[in-house]
Amino acid sequence: MSTETEVKYEAGTFEGKAVAKLSALISSNGISTGSATALRRFDPVDRPGDAALEVCSLLDRVGIDASPGTPAYESWSMVLHCLALVRGNHLRAVDVGTALVKANVSEARVRQLLESDRPMLFDLLPPMARRPAPSSQAMDWVPMTRLALSVDTKEQEAQRARLAIAHSFQRALSKAA
Q1: What pLDDT, on the 0 to 100 scale, is given for residue 104?
Q2: Strand partners, 139
């Protein structure tokens, strides 16, 4: 099995399908302007209740069963916040590394992301999401979603997500050079 095969995720995974559905709802007026604004403005870490209705509604609409207060709910809240920041601009065909390189995210910042624990990851994801948004740079949000869902809870899955992001970023850096 090649390294590329080992770190790639299947498009048909639950997370992949959920991210695609959530991004479609956010990008295509599947939610109200007020709901989209609430998702962009709320702080999923310090003030998760500020968009609780929106988060619960969207998770329910795509079939995600995550009870408020659980790590899964917190992770999906962060993913929704980031997707709202980029206005649902998720595209499977644009790997995360290419998007990060085009957004001029430094190797040091990516390293920090890859080495972070849950609290640090949740501090880093929103600013990283804001970087490609102004340039309308779409990216595949599945690896970031997998990392958010697994860091500090399912370490083997978190390692796979980290490897996928690192591999994608290094490949994109090599192509850009």
Answers
A1: 87
A2: 90
Residue 70's region, left for phi above 0, alpha for psi from -120 to 50, else beta, is beta
C-alpha–C-alpha distance, residues 66 and 54, integer Å = 14
d(CA 139, CA 97): 9
What are the boundaries of each domain within the chain? 3-176
Over the stretch 158-175, which tens digit does the pLDDT of each residue have? 999 999 999 999 999 999
pTM of the model: 0.88
- What's the whole-number average pLDDT of the chain? 87
Indicate the CATH number for domain 3-176.
1.10.520.40
- CA 142 from centroid of its chain's CA atoms: 6
d(C-alpha 136, C-alpha 23), whole Å: 14
